[in-house]
Amino acid sequence: MNRLLHTPEGVRDIYNEECFRKKEILSKLTESISSFGYDAIQTPSFEFFDVFSNEIGTTPSKDLFKFFVIFCNTLVLRPDFTPSIARCAATYFSSNVAPIRLYYEGNIFINNHSYQGRLKENTQLGAEYIGENTIDADSEILSMVVYTLKAAELKNFQISLSHSGIFRGLMKYGEFEVEDEEIILDLIRNKNFFGLDEILTQKNIDASLKNIFMNLSEMFNTPQEWEELLIDAKEYPEIYDAFVYLKDLDHLLKLYGVDSYISYELGLVSHYNYYTGIIFSGYTYGSGQPIVSGGRYDELISNFGKRAPAIGFALDVDALLIAMERQKIAPQIKSNKFICFYQPKDIQKAIQFATEKRNMGEAVLLLRMSSVYTTQFIQQLEEQHREVVFIEDTHSAEEINHE
Q1: What is the average pLDDT across 213-223?
Q2: What is the secondary structure of 147-194 as a DSSP string?
Q3: Global pTM?
């Protein structure tokens, strides 16, 4: 039998410096989220199929990793944390207490097609604010996204923000059929506004409504730049309310000092159908996909038997790390790892030295001296900010430590 020395398509091993760097960045990210008073939660890697069904509006069935167990139950590897957190909120938390603030970290699994060039297993970190449908909650989540990315020492990034009520209102007041909505949705996602213009012309859409449609292609830095759209939107209450909400939200984001990281992309639409309010995606250089996404989902938890409004975000940690590498961002990561070389006769001193350091919270790697460990090898260790120590016959561990 041939040994398999490689991983399946879509997954990869992470080791040595890359793994160390990932763990350190995750530590900084979770520390930032915790500073907002959020508590950690851990959910299973696989759940019942119904938790992620099409009715709930999550990942399409064809993109799920499914497997079957006794009693004909279908299980899936989680493709998304939010439905799992919604299930937990409905199961364990009372709706009569203060809002619930939770954060999570773990891997998700999506059966992407090989030609998409994406990994099928990714690490996600995110937070959910459950139990309050207020503009204060929305501004807290958005500001947390900005502060968390800054905690990773990322500087050049932008959050695209919109409101699901804009697209929903356009479909409603345009009186489009379900089939038309799917076509229009694809056109907007693909930024094909020439095709969108053709459909709107064929449908003889009102001029004011068409003007809003065609402005979905624009990116605005502030609400003042789309002020004139409010005039067109006054005839359509659902769209108008969404515009006003974003304008009010902008004021709170200024108070948090994060407004310079926010852009208003009115044509932003999500692949998840459970969003009911604001939606957002975060981008940076060196990543061909969003590094963070999220929004408000006030109806999702009701699928699990309890009504509660909620908003959250998910950060793609692997995409963030790739972008940071391409931007040549090297976060200041303290390495407290000692490499301790010793001769066999000095093993007692070496163990004493290692034990003392470990009791102080340091990491010590013991290596018996060998011809394998060349001068060049030792120089490489020092370049990696490892502190190299030699236990010699004429020194005690304490003396070496002072040297």
Answers
A1: 90
A2: HHHHHTT--SEEEEEEEHHHHHHHHHHTT--HHHHHHHHHHHHTT-HH
A3: 0.85
